[in-house]
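During the reporting period the student researcher (J.K.) took over the structure-prediction task from the postdoctoral fellow and processed the backlog of single-chain submissions. One of the processed entries is reproduced below for the supervisory committee.
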Amino acid sequence: MKKQWQKVVRLALVASLCMVPCGAGADEKPAAKEKKTRLQIEGSTTVGPIAKAFVAVFARKYKDVSITVKETGSGSGAAALIDGRCHIATMSRFMKPKEFKKAVENGVMPVAHVVAMDGVCVIVHPSNPVKALSIEQVRKIYKGEITNWKQLGGVDRKIVAISRDTSSGTYETFHKLLMKKQKMAKSVEYIAHNEQGRNRVKTTTGAISYVGLGFVDKSVKALKIGGVMPTRKTIASGKYPVSRPLFMFTNGYPKLGSTVHAFVTFHLTERGQEVIEAKGFVPLTNY
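J.K. obtained the following structure tokens:
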């Protein structure tokens, strides 16, 4: 009997010893393994660099937030917000009526936040002597009616017309403001990203494409369109004929103090304006 009692005591002591570290571990683990808040952003390849630059700043301030940025195009960003697959849709155009309609049907209320201004810049190879085109000339190039740079005062070289894909917000702006919604020629090549368009132009002497202002660098040459050069000043004033706002859309106005609210209003801060300018786009506010 005494041995049995001693056995029970020993078992009880072992159990109590196990409970102490387990209890201590249970108190510590939630803090050590606390899950990060996820913020998913999807959409425009033009707004993408701005979003990624914002993330770099937020990563230092909001260490408990995990932010993902996908550059899939404005149309895909709108679809992701409508379907509830992202918290913020980045778009280089405004939402279409049919997208709003589908959003409302899905219980989503899109709210637009203009974060910067941009210009759709027509670019050519730096060696191309052509410096300016009219809107009509650009349209005729993409319709296949002008096929050689010699027709525009350049060298005798075939024109290689490159366009963004039709799901792109940059394509939508170009198609509306420069093409006047007229159909492009079958010879036009389509690419998925601004960077691809720039790379194609800088490696192809006869190429012409169009990109956001933030993608114009020394490797390509931006042309005057309608007699106006795309610059921060001409884009901010709307003088450049292919100027446009850049958006971040949320489902409803984000809760004040939330990470989403801080992200979509970051462009209004002095640091946010600096980031936008550093990326080559036009800030909304002058400090």
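The committee noted the following: The chain has two domains: 37-117+245-278, 118-237.
J.K. will present the remaining backlog at the next meeting.
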